[in-house]
Amino acid sequence: MTSSENKQELFLSSFFSVLDVDSETETLKKSRMKTWNRFLDIRPLTDKEENFKYVPLKEITSKNYEKATHAKITSDLVKSLVLPECQNSFIVFINGFYNKELSDTSNHGSSFVLLPFKDAMKTYNTLLTNNTQRLIKDEKDPFVLLTASCYQDGAFFYLPPNIELTQPIQIINIHSENTQTWVMPRFFFFCGTNSHVTLINTSHYESSKEELVSVLYEYNLEEQSSVKLVDFDLEKHPESGWNFSAFRIFQKKNSVFKATQVQNSSKTRRDWKITLLGENANCALNGIWLLKSSNEGHTNVVIEHTEPYCESLQYFKGVLDDSAHSSFQGKIIVQKKAQKTQAYQLNNNLLLSSKAQSFSKPGLEIFADDVKASHGSTTGNIDQEQLFYLRTRGFSEQEARNCLLSGFCFDIFATLPTPSLINKAKNYILRFRNT
Hints:
By secondary structure, the chain is α/β, with parallel strands linked by helices. The chain has three domains: 1-277, no CATH class; 281-379, no CATH class; 382-435. The protein contains ten helices and 22 strands. β2 and β3 (97-104) form a beta hairpin. The relative contact order is 0.09.
């Protein structure tokens, strides 16, 4: 066994302790082991994997992490993190553990079911077991399978049919560890027929040590339901550590899924896989990464059209300064049955430094013959003519650059569902090159 293989075995040994917990049911233990075995079947966590081509996996898996622990957080800290639009409508997770006492969803009464994931495995066993079996059969991302087998906590969210939550629900993720730890929660969202919800993920970092965060979000949308999701992370992160977030979305007939990703994480990878399972399903992914120093942001997207008359949109942008680098890998798959599909994909990148790097690989796989689809990518610098024009109108160089940056980001920010998030994003851009 080589030195790197030895290190990877030590890395994997970090997770063994949660695979056979005495307090868990036999069903849950079996589910964990089946998923773990599937992970072992495909586990080569090496940079040679195409979807991880730009992620330094050897560096990550050469370390030995401890599992995360419960931590105490004050209610005053939580209150300071709640968005104005989400008062009495927020759910708190600390190091991946659901904290019922600090959460507050009183504005929604008993409109939905919210349970820790392990408790849900008892009450909604059939639903979650079937979903895990599908995951074991189809999943190819090793970090998804690692999280699905070794999660310590998470949440189950069930919105019954014909319920519309008009107020957004904020999901506050607080990281507070002083050791080199792994944090792996699992979230399952089930939206009943004709139900509608807006969810906002935000993060806050009290951590002083390196973390390996791997989160699995699973969304199941029944017919005519809709989910609006924001993954918003512009907080200052620890200098080291990695965050892997995977989103698995399954949409039935006439359902709508819209998501916006805004990130400034030190080292992150967002992995999206959306499957359109019914006619007239519609999805739209918008995202922007704002990276500087030596930060990394990697986004991988696969949208699969399996039925006719569906529509999908991918629109991602990147702003990179200093020695930051990013990668975007996108794929649209249109199966033979999915006639009358409309699918579009675009990735635009703006480089503010000669050392910044952006890699982009959009792609199409089309097996139907009546389809409207396109994909594209651009990478460039700030337009000097535009900069000169603004300077001649009295703008300082910094003001002119900020104006062009804001213009580049505006259409992504405009998809955010609340004024407070739009203002946070705009203010961040104004100080982007000064922080």
